[in-house]
Structures are given as C-alpha cells and as structure tokens.
C-alpha cells in the first residue's frame, strides 16, 4: 500500500504513525506500506501569507492529483490543513485518535507575560485575532514555515514570541518547547491535533483497511467542527476558533469568530449528540446573525 504525505518533518512523523498503526492493526510487516512524500506548494512558498497564495489547497493539490490518478492509495493529512469542501471522489477513511488540541506559546510564560508591544510571529488569522483581542498592544509579524523554520526565525530575532500546535511539537518529540495555553481561554483551530487519512471513495479494499484505525470520538469532534466551518462560509482570512469535546456520545462545542484586528468577538456554545451536523450549523448561523460589521467583512457567509 502506498501512503502519500507532505515531506516536512512533521508530516513524515504523522505518516510514520499512520503506517505503524495500520501495520499493527492488520499484523503487517512495515515494508507492506510505502510512504510516498511530496513537496507541497504550501511548503515551497514561505514569503507570503497562505491566504494570499491559494489557501489550504496548497497543502493538498499534489497529493490530490496522485490519489485521483491512482499513484497512491491514500493521503495522510493534518485535517486542519484540509479544505472543508472536498472532491466527491475522495472520502475520509479514518481519523486517528486526536492529540492535544491546544496551542503553545513560545517566547513567554503566558499571553499576559508578553512584553508591552511584543512582536508576535504568526500568519494564522485565528491566532492573530485572539492575540490582539487579549493584547491589543502587541504587533503581529508574519511568520510561515515548518516547526524548525519558525523556531529558527524566533531564535534569529524576527519576533519576540510565536505559536505552534502542541500536537505537532509532541509528534516531533519537542514536548519541552513552549507553554501550552488553556484551551478554554485560547480556543484552538478547527480539527487541530487530528490526523486524517483520505482514500478514493470507490476503493473498497483501502477503505476497509483503514476502517480499523478510525477513532469514533475524534471523528465526531472534527466532523462537527468542519460542519461549523462550512456553515460559517469562512475563508483563509476568517478568524475562527473552536473547542469541541466528546463525552459519552455527546459533544460540547464553544466557538468564536473575530474581526481581523481582533477587537470584535462573538462567541457561542452548543451541546449535541455526535453525528448531529445540524447543531453546529445552527451555532454557526447564530454567530453570523450576531456578527458585527467588522466580523462580517471577513466572512463570506455573513449577512
């Protein structure tokens, strides 16, 4: 079986985890699964914000082509980097058990401990808006690249602090880097911490192989978050933050949307059964209904 993956160190670590789980589930030798890396467009262009050069499709288009043409049997993705609307020929074959959803702050003990006027490196609208909502004195400076690149830019003095996903750092064996932020006060990105395996919808054998890896609670959380995202009609410029937790078949969701400068914030909450896509859509509709003009300006679906 051929698994396609981006070639960044984190993507390769996630593909290795997927291969290990797949082989363990079926009693296969590791040689039965080949990792096929690609340098994604999003990894090649690092001098501009993702939203300005094509959005999340830059993480998936090469793998999508290979998967569609049968060069690989499945793609391994960080689900938070996958567009909400996907081609009908693909399906999510498995969601692995979700890792830590939180962000980590590198360069200070907390958001409150950032120096006055600190330069904070991020190209994520969610992180920028949440930061400026809590600390309007700070300055956001654009930083993109893989984990090592961003840490290197911080070390070089391009910023005083930055953010990285806790799950990614853990998968790279860097649990000691940075301070995890309380997810109830600093909401994560939709699907953060989730590894997804995408297959061709008509490939029954591959879908069956990956079904053994699917983690139902994690799938319930991320599909609810993606339903919220779809209903919000957001794009790569839209600051969207959401925390969804699964407990005994029920999901609790907190979501917030922001204006680009972080000064305007609307939050909502819902509790519903896993698999109920109508509830997160209703929450999204409520957020948009209450959106201020500054928030509506960065949401395609806002009225």
List keywords for this structure.
five-stranded mixed beta sheet, alpha/beta, 303 residues, single chain, 10 helices
Descriptive overview:
- By secondary structure, the chain is α/β, with parallel strands linked by helices.
- The chain has ten helices and 13 strands.
- The chain has a five-stranded mixed beta sheet, with helices on both faces.
Tell me the layout of helices and strands:
Blueprint: E1 2-6, H1 9-26, E2 34-38, H2 41-44, H3 57-69, E3 74-78, E4 90-95, E5 103-106, E6 119-121, H4 125-134, E7 139-141, H5 147-155, E8 161-165, H6 166-171, E9 179-180, E10 195-200, H7 204-211, H8 216-232, E11 240-247, E12 250-258, E13 265-273, H9 278-289, H10 293-296
Parallel strand pairs: 1-2, 1-3, 6-7, 6-8
Antiparallel strand pairs: 3-10, 4-10, 5-8, 5-9, 11-12, 12-13
Major sheet: 5 strands, mixed
Determine the structural class based on helices, strands and strand pairing.
Answer: alpha/beta
| Separation, N- and C-terminal Cα atoms | 47 Å
Averaged pLDDT: 92
| Number of helices, counting only DSSP H or I runs of 4 residues or more | 10
Bulk shape: globular
Supply Rg.
19 Å
Low-confidence stretches: none
Give me the side-by-side strand order of the main sheet: 2-1-3-10-4
Assembly classification: single chain
Percentage of β-strand residues = 15-25%
Helix content: 25-40%
Strand elements, count: 13
String of helices and strands: EHEHHEEEEHEHEHEEHHEEEHH
